[in-house]
Amino acid sequence: MKVSHHPAPQLSSPEAAHSAFAAFLRHPLPAFPSLTPQRLLFALALLVCVSPLGSPPLALLLGLLVALVIGNPFQAQSRRITGKLLQWSVIGLGFGMNAHAAVQAGQEGILFTVASIAGTLTLGYFVGRWLRLDRKTSHLIASGTAICGGSAIAAVGPVIKADESQMSVALGAVFILNSVALFVFPQLGHALHMSQNQFGLWCAIAIHDTSSVVGTASHYGDQALQIATTVKLARALWIIPVALGTAFLFKTPGAKVKLPYFILGFIGAMLLNTYVPALTPLAPVAVKLAKVGLTLTLFLIGAGLSAQVLRSVGMRPFVQAVLLWLTISAASLYAILHTVS
Q1: Where are the transmembrane segments (predicted)?
Q2: Quick one: residue 82, left, alpha or beta (phi over 0 = left, psi -120 to 50 = alpha)?
Q3: Which among 144, 291, 273, 140 is positioned nearest to 217, based on CA atoms?
């Protein structure tokens, strides 16, 4: 039988190895996104926010510094993530709430809520006419101040068919004042010796956006956080009647109202925490994660306030926003200090 002999495999010569390596370099593996100094600084600021040093005011401040000094390298991604992160964080906070205490807080805040919403919307209409603002921008600012900031503006905007510039102006004005409140309110609360109950209620009424309300109240104390979150989310439900009333006043046919469904998640988490004892060991973990998520939310909000956003607001819309905010803040503070213990 004839046996065929195959040549033994030859080791590659240095020249062949060099050629193979050169070919590999010409066709590299998929590269990771380039790590620019801008992205590195953004990541470092983000890490500080989630570290033990992080807090809601610091997160907002770092976000503002990122936006104004180096710019947000992930602007589009931040915009997509912020809303969802806030919603899940609020749901997580529900695991730290007791349903019975929440009902009591909601009952205590209902009169303040109704009076402040009606008063702010009415005052916003007259201030807008006095400043000769276009009707849609004026109503968006008033709605954001009256109910829950960006969420109310996002819900009312499509109802009145507001364009992108009108939405941007209203959102910019509200977010600027949210940032101021996050730093100023705790200082005023301590200076006036406000109780946890008083401060939580004041935050829920006088600060626009849910993220800033929760961030400010959490910086003051756990009891203030529980009251502020409960009253603010109950206040957010007024988006529905205000949006429907807006559709009637602006005569918008076929208007669709966007409902804040995440509030149902918050209520569900609160009921589970109250009536399912088996979940008690997990509740502190959920609350801690929710607070981290809230801190990141405030960082992303701050990082979205670029110089372009600040310039786009304009003087007259900003004057309206400031007048409404100062009025509701001062009036609610006076009422709370004289009626709530």
Answers
A1: 40-73, 85-103, 109-128, 140-160, 166-187, 199-221, 233-250, 262-283, 289-310, 322-340
A2: alpha
A3: 291
Residue 17 in domain:
no
- C-alpha closest to that of 156 among 73, 148, 325: 148
More confident residue, 38 or 25: 38
| Length reported for the chain | 341
pTM for this predicted structure: 0.74
Domain count, the chain: 1
Residue type, 270: M
What is the domain extent for residue 201?
Answer: 81-339
Note whether residue 239 is domain-resident.
yes
Per-residue pLDDT of 311-341, as tens digits, reads: 767 788 889 999 999 999 999 999 999 888 7
How many Å apart are CA 141 and CA 120, to the nearest integer?
A: 10
For the chain, give percent helix, strand, coil, nearest 5: 75, 0, 25
pLDDT tens, residue by residue, 282-314: 888 888 888 888 888 888 887 877 777 667 677
Contact 226, 200 (CB under 8 A): yes
Domain assignment present for 261: yes
The span from the CA of 127 to the CA of 145, in Å, is 13
Say what the alpha-carbon torsion angle 199, 204, 208, 209 is, to the nearest 10 degrees: 110
Mean pLDDT, the chain, as a whole number?
80
Residue 228 domain-assigned (yes or no): yes
Nearest Cα neighbor of 242 from 167, 151, 336, 340 is: 151
Instruction: Give the model confidence (pLDDT) of 242-266 as tens digits.
Output: 888 888 888 766 666 666 677 788 8
